[in-house]
């Protein structure tokens, strides 16, 4: 198992979608931390908490993982999102993105 705590291992402030938007972009997180952890073949626990996340950042990270060669089924089985109560809706949105679904209206409230 690999644990990635976004606030500790990446940044307390997340940026835009693309690297051109700065070092804390969704592309940087996905390509530099998440994809390498997934390529090692184990379960990846992503701990969210601390930073605030735009839906665009989350979508860029999690909805595009299938383009890196992972099946949605594999991603759903191997990525575990850890979140405390205040991040419950964020967790639901991430799980929807992993499955290739739009986030539920509950996750957007």
Helix and strand layout, with pairings?
Elements: E1 2-5, H1 6-10, H2 26-39, E2 44-47, H3 55-63, H4 72-78, E3 79-82, H5 88-99, H6 105-108
Helix pairs in contact: 2-3, 3-5
Structural commentary:
The protein has helices spanning 6-10, 26-39, 55-63, 72-78, 88-99, 105-108, and strands at residues 2-5, 44-47, 79-82. The protein is mostly helical and 109 residues long. The chain has one domain. The protein has a three-stranded parallel β-sheet with strand order 1-2-3. The chain is globular, with a radius of gyration of 13 Å. This is DUF4325 domain-containing protein.
How many separate helices? 6
**Nearest-integer average pLDDT:** 91
Low-confidence stretches: none
Assign an overall shape: globular
Rg of Cα set: 13 Å
Number of β-strand runs: 3
Question: How many structural domains are formed by the residues?
Answer: 1
Helix content: 40-55%
Strand order, sheet with most strands:
1-2-3
Give the ordered list of helices and strands: EHHEHHEHH
Q: What structural category do the secondary elements indicate? A: mainly alpha
- Main sheet overview: 3 strands, parallel
End-to-end Cα distance, whole Å, is 32 Å
Strand content: 5-15%
Label this structure with key terms.
single chain, 109 residues, mainly alpha, 3-stranded parallel sheet, globular, DUF4325 domain-containing protein
Offer a quick outline of the entry.
This is DUF4325 domain-containing protein. By secondary structure, this protein is mainly α. It has 6 helices and 3 strands, in the order βααβααβαα.
